[in-house]
Amino acid sequence: MRALKLLGGAGTPDLGLLYARLTGAALLLAVHGLPKLLHWRGELAHIDDPLGLGPGITLACALFAEIVCPLLVAAGLCTRLACLPVLFLLGVSMLLVHPDWSLEQGQFGWLLIIVFGTIALAGPGRFSVDGWWSRRRARDL
């Protein structure tokens, strides 16, 4: 309880949302985003293109959803909006690119859908740029 008082009296839902934002974003960045960015030439050669946009556009969209959006989610900036490209990319991946995967094979993707879906529904919580901004606006009104 003392730790919660040190954090400004915030309840555990805010801490839980902070934890979900930071860990979900870190996993998506580390496992998908950064490897694609570091090896983008190789990715262009073998990236799946289920929507027929072309490999360049598909890779650019994937990099946006797997690098820019997780950084926004981690900061809690435009959080709900930043979750949407991630959820779209994961949905396309799980339903169109890997429809033959068993639940066990796709468990990482489904868990990321759960994490980012929860954040999109619940919002970023108090410990976020969005939370700070809404408290400031409410105070100024």
Automatic annotation (TrEMBL):
Keyword Transport: no
GO CC terms in record: plasma membrane
InterPro entries linked: DoxX, DoxX-like_oxidoreductase
Annotated keywords: Cell membrane, Membrane, Transmembrane, Transmembrane helix
Regions crossing the membrane: 12-31, 51-74, 81-98, 110-129
UniProt subcellular location: Cell membrane
Family, as annotated: Belongs to the DoxX family.
Name by which UniProt lists this protein: LysR family transcriptional regulator
